[in-house]
Structure prediction request, 830 residues.
Amino acid sequence: MSERFSATYDIETPVGLDHAAAVLVGEQSTGTFVRLAAETDALRDRAAARVEEIIPTGQSGRPSLPCRLKGKTFDRGVVTISWPVTNIGPSLPNLLATIAGNLFELAEFSAMRLVGLDIPESFAAAHPGPAFGAEGTRELLGVSRDAMIGTIIKPSIGLTIDETAGLVDELAAAGIDFIKDDELQSNGPDNPLPERANAVMAVLNRHADMSGRKVMYAFNITDGIDAMARHADMLEKLGATCAMVSLNWIGVSGLQFLRERTSLPIHGHRNGWGLFSRSPDIGIALPVLQKIWRLAGTDHIHVNGISNKFTETDEVVIEAAKSVQAPIAGTRRPALPVISSGQTAWQVGPTINALGNQDFLFCAGGGIMSHPKGPTAGIAALRQAAQAARARRPVSDFSRDHAELAAAIAHFKAP
Amino acid sequence: MSERFSATYDIETPVGLDHAAAVLVGEQSTGTFVRLAAETDALRDRAAARVEEIIPTGQSGRPSLPCRLKGKTFDRGVVTISWPVTNIGPSLPNLLATIAGNLFELAEFSAMRLVGLDIPESFAAAHPGPAFGAEGTRELLGVSRDAMIGTIIKPSIGLTIDETAGLVDELAAAGIDFIKDDELQSNGPDNPLPERANAVMAVLNRHADMSGRKVMYAFNITDGIDAMARHADMLEKLGATCAMVSLNWIGVSGLQFLRERTSLPIHGHRNGWGLFSRSPDIGIALPVLQKIWRLAGTDHIHVNGISNKFTETDEVVIEAAKSVQAPIAGTRRPALPVISSGQTAWQVGPTINALGNQDFLFCAGGGIMSHPKGPTAGIAALRQAAQAARARRPVSDFSRDHAELAAAIAHFKAP
Prediction:
């Protein structure tokens, strides 16, 4: 009896939940629109998907998405489908082709979101998972207890290499733990990655020689496979400690390749995420996709932040961050959730309280650079906000004897 | 003055089209939510994106997607944004991070679809494009003029290797041009790719020895980079003539790698496509993504079919197929559109008429296997339908002296 993996979908359908689930099962395993003689019982026993659970959740008089099949009522529900692992073996791209393949466009559905994924331990164990995760990143950063503080080079694109290096110098002197390229900054002719890495690592290695602590810089090496390999090798030689990639565009296969190839922590950027998350009626939830990315080996995963400038609610953000910290099938390391988007000292405490821990990377841009007393005070204010949360004291109270935090909450608008 | 690439979006916004376009431009180039001193005029000249055109198209009293920003009216429009190529160089994954990155979730938008992409000739010329495309595939298949006829091994998953080889034998004897694995069939322990390829190619090489014409079989090699390379090499050694991949999961980087690595035509499967296409309010249109896939080197691209079992309208399907056949920036070969999904002899003529040519691969499953006189007649009926279209005669008329076509249109329901 083969082990099985299962996926859970939030669906809406004009044909009834039972029939819709049966269509999904057929389409994604042994069924065809004309029943074939070759679909024997033995074959079905080997390979057929199975409906595990159907939970009705509501009904509507009109379809949420345009739907070719008409209906008087559209039933909403949560259905769980399982497949034998032997259909695909423990292959991540083929897992996606099975659970997220040719199904979102079926005419029997007027909404479909992939919201859950369960894989057996043996499947998870076939993948390396993060080489560093939260704990390994903490060690590299030399931050023993509180949230790690990071920032993103801004403006996102257009700085010269000298300007970038100058900004990195300023941030390192100010006591930052982590800096990253913006996802728009890659390897363009105006700011080639090798030259940028050379200049930035010269600065960071110098600071490390003085302080004994090396700031982690996530260089965006997103590119073709050969270029990513070449650039990861170059980064290692320069003493860099992190490589960043755009997860959705290098693909799961590209990510797996990088995990095998490099000894650097991998900073996973989810740009394009709105395609999967923005609609309540189509898409994939982060708790699902982050499992794939973590199994493939990413160490850091962006999850947005509380009171962000995008559309995700705090609830969705926190659920995403928690999922990145949760175990997968009892195996593999947690990854490090990366909090960002319009973050200031105001959001540090609420993030800690919501997660129940400080094992995250808190990235602020303006929240550091626009602190009225400069970036050193900006970073100090964020650390003080984390100390306040650990001491279970409100920032308004804690800031009385912490001047940088006081200046931050006076300057930045409470979200 | 740097050359520029541009992207066109169908957007909806509560903040007015002009302001929304400015937000998009800022977010995807030099802007930040707190204006930084470093955003100098020189930097903006170098790297800023630019609004090229705004065309208002409508207005609504409520947002199409949940939107954090409130408004009394939501303006709909089509906006075109351009970027300097020097921001990224001719990198496809980084092009996607720029035109399809952190923008779909911006709070200023209640709908956003990426519907157009223009790149300069120099950008296109930096990529190989399809090695075979429509013309090269035609040559390999030995089909000189009419539409190429293909099918998909069904049931999708669960057949043994012997059963698969038996079906391939039957289809080859019946005169098929092309056969493909279903995207659910990859390299699972119940049907390992190497053994399947061995068995299938033994059959097809035998038929080729007799007929002088080798049926093309697209083996699904979707997997990690190393496995894809190993399997592509294996296929070449076996005399196979096509490798299939799940484009969305191996990523653009994975596709580029494969194009460099193998001399086989690449059959691009777009499973997961509904995530990008299903909602009128979020996603990416196929004419955009197919450009990326073609530049990276895929030879065949799935575009669904007329009167399909999914939700796409015929108009969308035909627009997609035409885009795959259109030139890109005056350079690189067209790819071959793959028509499939509930296709029978009824849809051949309308497809030819809509495209104005027969340079496509027409894939039918039940439409061949369920022909009342068997698969040989099923394939003959499809070829006769193509001949009828070329002769500009309706199938009802042409079928009078073409028995297989007559049986097909009597048996299969007109869509």
User: Anything to note?
Assistant: Chain B is about 40% helix and 20% strand. Chain B touches chain A through 97 residues (CB under 8 Å).
